[in-house]
Sequence to fold (1391 residues):
Amino acid sequence: MDAKLEQDIRAEFEPQIRACAHPQELVVHLLRAIQREHGWVPDEGVELAARLLGLQPIQVEEVATFYDKIYRRPVGRRVIHVCDSICCWSRGEQEIRAHLEARLGIRLGETTPDGVFTLLPTCCLGACGRAPAMQVGFRLYGELTPDRVDRILDEERRAAGQGDPP
Amino acid sequence: MSHPQVLFARRRPGQTVSLETYLQEGGYQALGGAVGKQAPAALRKLVLDSGLRGRGGAGFPTGQKWSFFPADAPGPKYLVCNCDEMEPGTYKDRELLVADPHALVEGMALAAYALGVTHGYVFVRYDYEDVFRALERAVAEAHGAGFLGERILGTDFGFELHVHGSAGRYILGEETSLLNGLEGVRPNPRLRPPFPAQRGLFGRPTTVQNVETLCNVPHIALHGAEWFKGLALTPGEAGTKLFGLSGHLNRTECFELPMGVPLREVVEVHGGGVRQGRRFKACLPGGASTPYLTAAHLDVPMDFGNLDRAGSRLGTAGVTVFDERTCMVAATLNLLTFFARESCGWCTPCRDGLPYVCYLLERFERGQAGREELALLKAQPAFINQSFCALAQGAMGPLEGLLRHFEQELLDHVTRGGCPFGGA
Amino acid sequence: MPTLTIDEREVSVPAGASVLEAAEALGITVPHFCYHKALGAVGACRLCAVEIQAGPQHGLRMACLVEARDGMVVSTTAPAATGMRRAVIEYLMLNHPHDCPVCDEGGECQLQDMTVAGGHGVRRYRGKKRTFPNQELGPFVEQEMNRCIQCYRCVRTYRDYAGGHDFGVLGVRQRVAYGRFRPGRLESPYSGNLVDVCPTGVFTDKTVRFRARVWDMQCAPSVCPHCSLGCATWPWARYRELLRVSGREGPRTNGFFLCDRGRFGSGHANHPDRPRTPRLDGRELGWPEALEALRERLTKLTWAHGPGAVGLLTSGRASLESARALGLLGQALGGAPVVCEPHPRRDRAVRALVAELGQLGRDQEDVRQSDCLLLAGLDPEGEAPMLALAARQAVRRGARAAVWDPRPDRLPFPARRIARLPEALLEALARPDGRAPDGLEAAERESYAETRAALQAAERPVLLGGADLLGPRGVRLLLAAARALSRPGRACGLSLALPGPDSFGGALLCPDGPDADELLAGIEAGRVRALVCLEADPLSEHPDPARVAAALGRLELLVVLDHLPTASAARAHAVLPTTAAAEMDGAFVNHAGRLQGFARVYSAGLPIRVTGQGAHPPREFRPDTPGELPQPGWAVLAALAGEPVELGELRAELARSEPRLAGLAGLVAGGPGVQLALEPSARERPDTPAEPGVAEGELALLSVEALFGSEPLSARAAPVAGVASEDALALCPADAARLGLGEGEPARLRSALGEAVLPVRLAPGLAPGFALVQRRFGGPLEGFAPGGGPIACRIEKGGAR
Ligand SMILES: Cc1cc2nc3c(=O)[nH]c(=O)nc-3n(C[C@H](O)[C@H](O)[C@H](O)COP(=O)(O)O)c2cc1C
Ligand code: SF4
Ligand code: SF4
Ligand code: FES
Ligand code: FES
Fold:
């Protein structure tokens, strides 16, 4: 985490924190912002959040380690969350997951050697009508087929290469 | 078969209703008609009379909940809208909010007025970036137009609405866990009593309602309790219901249908029947936590009372259909895996009991199970239903459904030494 | 008082009690993990299932969460309840490692007990177990996370109960772990409670890892000797070695918990240099010879020079019976008076309290139940650590708290603070009109007025103070303030931290003897020619060690009775080894005037670890026990007086001669103890003169106690050696800047206590005009005896250290 990031986060949050009767309520918001800027939340990010909110690092860590989508370990520039819940399961989720693993050459929980993709399972994305579904960053993709997955991966890889936000 | 559209009346595929359109199509009239003109207590009474029941899964009568709320107590009080929507098979709130976010803003402002609340939160799950954006925009628009903020519509009534983006955990849909999440502490559920109406967010009186519940309020305020009851097809029920279809259907979309619509109509007409001409085997009638219905239940009216009597629940009305080739053991294992993974880790039956159930189901799938495992499996719901909150109890829905309707399938796994459907 | 039926027996319990507590009242233990009397019910483990068969609720319920109601019929043995409990145990055991044979908790593990009791004898689960990495948490607490059953007791104790802020819950679902953000020493002074509250072997006492099974150890109910609060303990010993201390339930004192000083500071009993054999003029002797020789010399001195020729000095460390035996020796020597504390200011402060306290004394339970607290000149972490926890519980229940103290605030609860010496404020509080003292700033005046009003309005107000800072004058002011705030039917109580575990008892026995300065003057004048020190170390505890050293040098005979290798013992002509508290039966009177008994845990002796030089069992066979000679102080003194007694006789004598101690007769160790019936002394209250102020250019030095290493016991305990406070001089940043001193820079400190060169620590919470040091044995601050209150000092940039 660099100093610039800390400055930006401070600039973004200090006014909010001052205006807030219960600054602790901003902890998830703050962690998400750090993750947005840094890709994941390193230890220093937890400490920064704690400092800004007047908390102990452990109080932030307790929250950070609870949530599924706060990454406390490094991830690739694009995190693929492939849904494995019931509706997607009923419509070929296993095939999609196997295809993703084969194409990326990694298994669930791993990151491609080029650091572009991390593949993680997720529970239902609320796209059950468009199953099977996955989410890359905040972009939702439904009605997946192996072909469509290939196109999405290409597109996302290109976008990541250009430095587009996930 | 077309039915009256209330919540979806303004919905256009691929679009989000702007403030302008919302106003053109009668939006904020209910708010205008109530604030400063109608006593809050009268509005509460109206909601009570309408028979509106919570759409978040538990189906608790909304008016009754409001009658416990200390609306006249001094000091801060909160209204929270629950848009965590993480139960598999459930996506209705997303459809509703992406289509028509002002409906929620108006519904919350009205509810806040009725409850004497001045601060509200919409709690949005991490992945609903589309909903989050639509809501932030709607809130800003409503603020600009005087439907939110201080002195709404020139009256003494003020209401501030914040949109909170979560970070991904199903348990936050449980309302006390959600409140902890909003406070920025570990979101385990809270012990009750005290109930949120007494001590909720930041220790203050709080009401948590589902998106769809709140979106119904403006319509009730405009058209009255009798009209609302009349929307239902079955006696004792009220309103329409959003049904999110999924699984092995030809059309897996979200529909607004009258409360009490028969399951057969949902499956065959709106869902376009089971894919590839296969036979209907079972469905989850109301999300991942509801016991399965089978082909024998196709004529059950989809409402709170009838589904209870059929041994299941309306839940979130996310209908997931399984065709004849589905292994119900594998389906149940998938569901239980979800619940085990989303356990908050507070209580033993859920944290450790659910993984144990998964382990047992896996043994069936792998052909490692015998009668001892079957007996063990059967014993689990009684224990796991003693969990601290409803998450693990919800997980017992499909398991109990499996044991009730598909015991033979479990036995087949035992006798065949594995999954007869070639799963696992 | 609802009346209900549990397992076919009726019981009436106070309204609000849970079914679990009602069962407890019948002696029925409903198995439980997450419930704890001090932590309450949270409904997490789901083990405490019972079947409710009649009453307002029906069916299987969690006993800890259901309020007992009239007419309820409860079964703890119904098949549904036992089945549920068996299932919960099975769930908890799924991931539990099979490492009981190497687990320190084995034998005292609640999970083990429940697993056996619940009949879960065979593991049916064949899957993988979840595992965790362990964290290094410092020298006291060992973590073995895989053994966790997620009862959340640890975090509820550490954080909620004790106010620690470096420990929490991590993760989710089946991967929930407990620990710090980063590995490192647990910072809370109450960290050791993790060992007691964890029902399994996740948190165990690292200082005795792999040393003993619970059934290998001897234990008996005891009272903590590390401060004046008298917390209830279980010391545990094996092979003549005091291994560990755990908390015992003390309803009026500690509740359940202990501070880390009390828990980890007891290694003094195993100190390798501890006196174990009577020694006279450099020669080791047996008891009969030593006693005979000493008796003769003391008697001769008395005959030759009168009873005043022998001085008698004890301290708050000695047991009540030993202090009495010293008095009896004085009588046998013709009336030599006893000095009860080596530090004269401490001595006078304690005696002021004991003389005037009457019924105003408040113990830890009173503090926990209080609704308004004022801490005036008290630093609990150093003087009485558990008092801070007691106050915290009151604050958690809504009590208001105020602090009047110039020292930095390190309390585990929020309080309104006036950063000044409390004297003038207390004086104001004691006045009928209560008008604020002059010289306060506006905010302070307001704070003062608010605190006074709150104390007046409260139903159970308590004033807390520390004898060390307050001194006799401050103590009298605190007493006067308490009286001024009392009215008929509603007293304002008082809870004062004293120097030692029996300071109160010692002062009770000699209300108006001379103090240590008079004793020194007697030695200097040649009137006193011999001195008997009972568990007292004037060289370390008197504020003028140089003067003490000179005086001791003049003595014809210095006799030291002690179990510690003290500086004074090193200079003595005769050393008589006594037993530590865990090695004897005895009694202490705690700070609030509660008489409590403690029992012998084991017999003194050289640990087998020492005699066997690591090998076990030792191969040398002999009829006696090596190192077994130490005797209780009272027994040595009685023998020295030529009148050996049994403890019972001594107690009976004491109960007869001092009616306030009548309770001694029936005193049992491990019992609730006896609150002494105290009357405020009828004598006129002396007007204590104000202490000399601090001149221009000087700072007021406070030498205080740290959690570890400041009092003589923990200072000699191996486990805390590594964690004792650092030697440093704390200054507020403004004063440091004025003196041209920065953080870490050496400063030369000069005061009547001595001189030292110390690194500067900037302490923003310290009031301007003050300098603060923590006395530590074995360093440059050893001679800075606490208890002197603020004294003048000079500070300048220091040279080489
Ligand atoms: C595990 C769990 C998850 C839940 N998730 C949601 C949810 O995503 N949305 C929702 O509205 N209610 C959810 N609920 C129900 C809420 O606790 C609460 O009952 C509901 O928000 C109340 O609103 P309603 O009465 O309008 O339905 C959940 C309950 C549980 C136990
Ligand atoms: S059932 Fe228990 S562990 Fe599961 S989510 Fe609820 S409280 Fe947490
Ligand atoms: S570490 Fe011990 S006290 Fe803490 S939750 Fe685990 S078993 Fe309970
Ligand atoms: S189950 Fe995959 S999106 Fe709902
Ligand atoms: S003791 Fe009752 S739930 Fe744990």
Q: What stands out?
A: Chain A touches chain B through 40 residues (CB under 8 Å).
